Automatic annotation (TrEMBL), chain A:
Signal peptide: 1-21
InterPro entries: SBP, Sperm_putr-bd
The keyword Transport belongs to this UniProt entry's keyword annotation: yes
This protein's GO CC annotations: periplasmic space
Pfam family of the protein (one): SBP_bac_8
Binding site residues for spermidine: 32, 81, 324
GO MF entries: polyamine binding
Function as written in the Swiss-Prot or TrEMBL entry: Required for the activity of the bacterial periplasmic transport system of putrescine.
PANTHER family: NORSPERMIDINE SENSOR (PTHR30222:SF12), SPERMIDINE/PUTRESCINE-BINDING PERIPLASMIC PROTEIN (PTHR30222)
Biological process (GO), any one: polyamine transport
Name by which UniProt lists this protein: Putrescine-binding periplasmic protein
Family: Belongs to the bacterial solute-binding protein PotD/PotF family.
Superkingdom, taxonomy of origin: Bacteria
Automatic annotation (TrEMBL), chain B:
Chief place where the protein resides: membrane
PANTHER family (alphabetical): INNER MEMBRANE ABC TRANSPORTER PERMEASE PROTEIN YDCU-RELATED, INNER MEMBRANE ABC TRANSPORTER PERMEASE PROTEIN YDCU-RELATED-RELATED
Localization: Cell membrane
Recorded topology in the membrane: Multi-pass membrane protein
Source domain of life: Bacteria
Annotated ABC transmembrane type-1 domain residues: 90-297
Alphabetized UniProt keyword annotations: Cell membrane, Membrane, Transmembrane, Transmembrane helix, Transport
Membrane-spanning segments: 25-48, 94-115, 121-140, 276-298
GO cellular component: plasma membrane
Name of the protein in question: Spermidine/putrescine transport system permease protein
Family under the similarity heading: Belongs to the binding-protein-dependent transport system permease family. CysTW subfamily.
CDD domains: TM_PBP2
């Protein structure tokens, strides 16, 4: 028996060795965010073994890298504000001029974003919005207002799921109150704290991982959610509508970054170039139901995406805003408000 | 404990007397690496200065403990008052874990007694049945529990069907759901030690007591329960301790609306706050609390034995 196991192990090692003929690529990615076909295609094209670990929030990614995982992974896919934080923490490598053949494919509006000037460390992956979806069987009134989350009508009270994510809840709350995201005004902060305490009475749960499932199952009638997840919930049979509040909504962009001390830097750059080819990134979009930041994807996209209500804000929609990065003193007040909310 | 076992073994242990240090080395190394080193690290981290967005600065600081015990207001410049937030979170966790332990005991004791009083050949079968759900991952069991308890789930459908209730009970996202989840997660840890104790129990003692006109209640209270007490205490500890630090059940079944100790600590490392020293301090306080509870149990047990 033991001998058999040794032989099997040796055989496995051999196959793995053959697959890794041209080396390896270690990806650190969100859960449920890249179709296996795209990874397979990259592996075949470049003869590179692809290994992927997943995380469930930007903060979890940062925590893991700071706790010593830096040097293990080649690329990761942080959101906009997290790119800025990671660059500030020295966790990102710089992409030198000319290292990416397809850098020109990036759409002009995403070529020089505020969170990564000149795209020194990152390329666009997908972008979309965070707002909320409402079950139309339960409520048929106007949903394009943040009141649905923070001051809901009686029909929806007690049936609301919020994302278990400080950044997204706080940014939405700031839009609701019409105050800056990193406010230092004490009256505004106290009012924000009080407003959240009152709103919490109406909330059933905080959950990010099952944000889509609670809408599909009907456990929640309102769910704070990303646009692509809302589209998937609708496709899975939930009679939900995604809201674009007049007060504004959150816009985010996830980006593929080159990590510091990447063990397979060349393959990481190949992977980035691969994801800048319209056909490949379109396959990601078709799967994740968001929007890419690459030019020329149109011919490869699922036609249904063009009319997908979650990606087409109505004229009444407020402005889409990125989550802002606050300085330490300000952030500590927001952390305290979050703890108060969940104590 | 290791020493007690070795001295009890008389001549056999003498055979290995010289090699004893070497034979115990793997155990000490494992304990050192897996228990002592992490706890020491945690202790040190809890006295360091927090680095913004996770990590520590190697400067001594008491601010993690200060944050735990003193409330300085939203902006950190009010005069310090006693901070009730975290005490409240700890109290809530103790209460939830206590309720789950009690529930496990009430269901687990009769179950264990039932199994231990079957014919020997049947016992294996019943024990096997108790363990079957635990072949499935804890996360999946907790999610399944949520599906059972939901407003439109089988439990509510059944109760509505037989007409006991007219409106579905909202159990999910309440403390009751958390307690049920914890109870279900750790029930075998209650059943198995009690089973072991009842199985060793000499039933002729019950018969003798009955012959001396003891009622069934008296037999249970004065003869059986004292005899199987170590099993009950072991079961309670095994359910209570992991329940206290659990975060799956509170997050999934309780809706994560209120921190429990486990989720509070997780938030310090994985969440936005990124406050490692505070997470370490909260862990140390939890550890101290658990140790105190264990010591009380241990003292009671040694008193009962002497």
């Amino acid at each position: 028996m033991k001998k058999l196991m040794t032989t099997t192990a040796a055989a496995l090692a051999l196959t793995a060795g053959m697959a890794a003929a041209e080396g390896k690529l270690v990806v650190y990615h969100w859960f449920e965010y890249i179709p296996q076909e795209v990874l397979d295609k990259f592996r075949e094209q470049h003869d590179v073994e692809v290994v992927m670990d997943t995380y469930d929030s930007n903060e979890a990614l940062l925590a893991s890298l700071k706790a010593g995982a830096i040097g293990t992974y080649d690329v990761a896919v942080p959101g906009d504000y997290m790119v800025q934080i990671m660059a500030g923490e020295g966790l990102l490598d710089t992409i030198k001029d000319g290292e990416l053949a397809n850098k020109g494919n990036i759409l002009p509006q995403w070529a020089d974003p505020s969170f990564d000037p000149g795209r020194a460390h990152s390329i666009p992956y997908q972008w979309g919005s965070t707002s909320f979806a409402v079950n139309r069987d339960v409520f048929d009134g106007d949903i394009n207002t943040t009141d649905i989350l923070f001051n809901p009508p009686a029909d929806l009270s007690g049936k609301i799921n919020m994302l278990d994510s400080q950044g997204e809840v706080m940014a939405m709350a700031a839009l609701h109150m019409g105050i800056p995201q990193c406010s230092t005004d004490r009256d505004q902060l106290k009012a924000l704290n009080d407003m959240l305490q009152e709103a919490k009475v109406h909330w059933a749960s905080f959950n990010s991982d099952t944000a889509k499932e609670v809408l599909v199952s009907g456990d929640a009638a309102v769910g704070q959610i990303y646009d692509g997840f809302a589209a998937k919930a609708r496709e899975e049979g939930a009679n939900t509508e995604y809201a674009f509040p007049t007060q504004g909504y959150i816009v985010w962009m996830d980006n593929v970054v080159l990590l510091k001390d990447a063990p397979n830097r060349d393959n990481a750059l190949k992977f980035m170039d691969f994801l800048l080819e319209p056909e490949n990134i379109a396959a990601v979009t078709n799967y994740a139901r968001y929007v890419s930041g690459v030019d020329g994807v149109a011919p490869f996209l699922d036609p249904a995406l063009a009319t997908q209500p979650e990606s087409n804000p109505p004229a009444t929609a407020g402005e889409g805003v990125f989550i802002q990065v606050c300085d330490q003193a300000t952030q500590e007040v927001y952390d305290q408000i979050w703890t108060n909310l969940k104590k | 404990m290791a020493g007690g076992a070795a001295t009890g073994g008389s001549s056999t242990s003498d055979t290995y007397a010289e090699a004893r240090t070497w034979l115990l080395l793997p155990a000490w190394v494992t304990l050192g690496i897996l228990v002592l080193a992490p706890v020491t690290m945690m202790l040190i981290y809890s006295f360091l200065t927090k680095e913004f967005r996770g990590g520590v600065i190697w400067e001594f600081s008491l601010s993690a403990y200060d944050q735990f015990f003193f409330d300085r207001g939203l902006f950190g410049d009010d005069p310090p008052r006693i901070e009730w937030t975290y005490i409240q979170i700890f109290w809530r966790s103790i209460w939830q874990a206590g309720a789950a332990t009690l529930l496990s005991l009430v269901i687990g004791f009769p179950t264990a007694y039932f199994i231990a009083t079957r014919a020997p050949a049947q016992r294996t079968f019943w024990l096997f049945l108790v363990t079957i759900p635990y072949w499935v991952n804890l996360l999946i069991r907790t999610v399944s529990m949520k599906f059972l308890l939901r407003d439109q789930g089988p439990l509510n459908e059944a109760l509505l069907g037989i007409g006991i209730i007219s409106e579905p009970l909202s159990i999910v996202n309440t403390n009751v759901a958390v307690q049920l989840g914890l109870f279900y997660s750790y029930l075998p840890f209650m059943v198995l030690p009690i089973y072991a104790a009842v199985e060793r129990y000499n039933f002729t003692l019950s018969e003798a007591a009955a012959d001396l006109y003891a009622s069934r209640w008296t037999v249970l209270r004065r003869i059986l329960l004292p005899s199987v007490k170590p099993g009950i205490i072991a079961g309670c500890i095994l359910v209570f301790v992991p329940s206290m630090g659990s975060f799956l059940a509170p997050d999934l079944l309780g809706g994560a609306k209120n921190f429990m100790i486990g989720s509070l600590i997780e938030e310090q490392f994985k969440g936005n706050a990124g406050n490692w020293p505070f997470g370490a301090a909260a862990s140390m306080i939890l550890l101290t609390l658990v140790l105190i509870i264990l010591l009380i149990f241990a003292r009671q047990q040694s008193k009962a034995e002497s």
